[in-house]
Amino acid sequence: MAGFLIRRLTGLVLTLLAASAVVFLALELLPGDAAQILLGTEVRPDTLAAMRAQLGLDRPAALRYAEWIAGLATGDLGVSQVYHVPVWDMVRDRLAVSLPLAVLAFILSTLLALPFGITAAVKRGRLADTLIMGFAQIGLAVPNFWFGILLILLFAVQLGWVSAGGFPGWEGGVGPALGALFLPALALALSEAAILSRMVRASMLETLGEDYVRTARAKGLSGSRIVVGHALGNAMIPIATLMGLQFAFLVAGAVIIENVFYLPGVGRLLLQAIFERDLVLVRNLVLMLSAFVVALSFLVDMAYGAIDPRLRRAT
After folding, report:
1. pLDDT greater at residue 58 or residue 257
2. Cα separation, 64 vs 46, whole angstroms
3. 171/213 Cα distance (integer angstroms)
4. CATH class of 94-305
5. C-alpha span between 307 and 312 (Å, rounded)
6. DSSP letters along 213-275, please?
7. Which pLDDT tens digit goes with each residue over 134-148?
8. Distance between CA atoms of 299 and 305, rounded to whole angstroms?
9. Terminus of the chain with fewer CB atoms < 10 Å: N or C?
10. How far apart are CA 260 and CA 269, in angstroms?
11. Considering the entire predicted model, what is its pTM?
């Protein structure tokens, strides 16, 4: 187990370093001068030079990258170039929206995918299986922001049941806050539920074909008891792995949904930072989201390795 853990930790560190290099290089290659964008086109050359020096753009890129990594190692995320606020303070406030949104979307996705996937497996080849997999295919094909627009048109514009966007804040009460997050969470959940339901169906079909399931049927056990008591538990290992990865993607992938519903989350902050060319904020936000995905993937690997000893021996 120690060797398995060391290999996974090494892979995590190398992945984060590679991600940081890609993020930094991508921002360096963007056309235009960040200082020029911040000050405008009618700026004096000496003022522009002073701003470039303040932003560190007059120093070699390799040196700036090394200073950035050294700061990250000590927990220093820097200060926003546009808002002049520590990056962590801005991110911390936005996580109060993004994390509950991801948790709610994860719960809705699970509640939709598990019963539909199990039903499709049990009713394989029948009408229920065809309908469920058909809807799952639609969920895979349609992007989540389009689901969000359709939900706004139906529930906010046509029915008037909810607001079309915005967030009242947690200080206004848990009920109104969760109500504001429900539609964007549902829009995020539909696409993920489509993926997860297909995985549940495939895993359940594989498990239902095992010898111990046929033995249980031969003993006269009821179908529900076979599915819940024998097949589902063994089918959950790959399902749980996908669920863990999906939660990470729900946090990191809500950029467009947060903008569709005008939610003050991390995704909306990232898009604003890109438009305003706030390089410090952009690179730290992107790396933080990448680190969250990589870290959760690492935890899933650890859990999978603890459950299945064959994985530890194979790696």
Report:
1. 257
2. 22
3. 52
4. mainly alpha
5. 10
6. HHHHHHTT--HHHIIIIIIHHHHHHHHHHHHHHHHHHHHHT-HHHHHHTT--SHHHHHHHHHH
7. 998 888 888 888 888
8. 10
9. N
10. 13
11. 0.81
Rounded distance between C-alpha atoms, residue 244 and residue 239, angstroms: 9
Residue 157 per-residue DSSP state: I
- CA-based max dimension of the chain: 87
Delimit the domains of the chain by residue range. Answer: 94-305
CA pair distance 284, 87, nearest whole angstrom: 8
Residues paired with residue 86 on neighbouring β-strands, in sequence order: 79
Tallying the residues shown for the chain, one arrives at: 315
Give the closest residue to 7 by CA, choosing from 302, 287, 245, 306: 302
Phi, psi of 30 (to 5 degrees): -60, 140
DSSP 152: I
What would you report as the CA-atom Rg of the chain, rounded to the nearest whole angstrom?
24
User: Which of 133-137, 190-194, 254-258 has the lowest average pLDDT?
Assistant: 254-258
CA distance 315 to 311: 6
Angstrom distance (rounded) from CA 80 to CA 170: 25
For residue 14, count CB atoms less than 10 angstroms from its CB and return exposed for 0-12, middle for 13-18, buried for 19 or more. Answer: exposed
Residue range 109-124: mean pLDDT, rounded: 90
pLDDT tens column, 72-100: 888 888 888 778 888 888 888 888 899 99
The span from the CA of 245 to the CA of 192, in Å, is 11
pLDDT at residue 26, as a whole number: 82
